[in-house]
Amino acid sequence: MAIEYRFNLGDDIELLYSIELDREYDPTQGEGAPAWTRLTHNQCSNCPLNKDEHKHCPAALDLYPVIEDFKGLPAFKKSTVKVTTPEREYIKLVGLEEGLRALMGVIMATSGCPHMAILKPMAVQHLPFANNQEFVLRAVSVYLTRQYFNMRDGSLPDWELKGLVKVFQQLQLVNQAFWHRIHDVCAGDSNLKAFLNFFSMASSVSYSLETQLQKVRPMIMGKEEGEL
Fold first, then answer.
1. Helix (H) or strand (E) holding 94
2. Which of 35, 52, 73, 154 is the most buried (most CB within 10 A)?
3. Are 195 and 172 in contact (CB under 8 A)?
């Protein structure tokens, strides 16, 4: 199963990326990759990987071809981005930072990063160009579905979403460290703005989940409490 991103930059310039969602991470790979992809380069403070077994950061290793392609391009540059999933296609004219945010998100969520694995179900049901409310609603929905299965399996479910906040607090640390990684190599600002955009969406869960939920409550509950 793969998701394809096609960036049309004009002047007959087109960039194509095909992301296999179930790709296997090989810790021995990385020969020829740039130094900023090494595990110890701005390594996340909460990274559980051992530098003796993992020479490179798995997320950085998957992302570096994209970073290299876009590092000299400004975030405001417009591109027609076509996203093809097994179920449907999406086409939108966007600034590069919006297109890159979507592409980076699906790549990181399906990389070998242990902390990003929590986002893989969202990547499998990929919604490119999602806004903040859509991101929060999907993250909460996936988490609550997991709690339902935990209950069915005899485990204690977390209906108050405390575990979700903790998960995104860990993702905050990953985002902060990764921003420093790409900051070292980006001549333009498209990658940085894309990552800051992704960082902002993740922050909304860890810092203000209740506020974000109140924003989507009218959409879920209807005009009156309990209305379907």
1. strand 89-95
2. 73
3. no
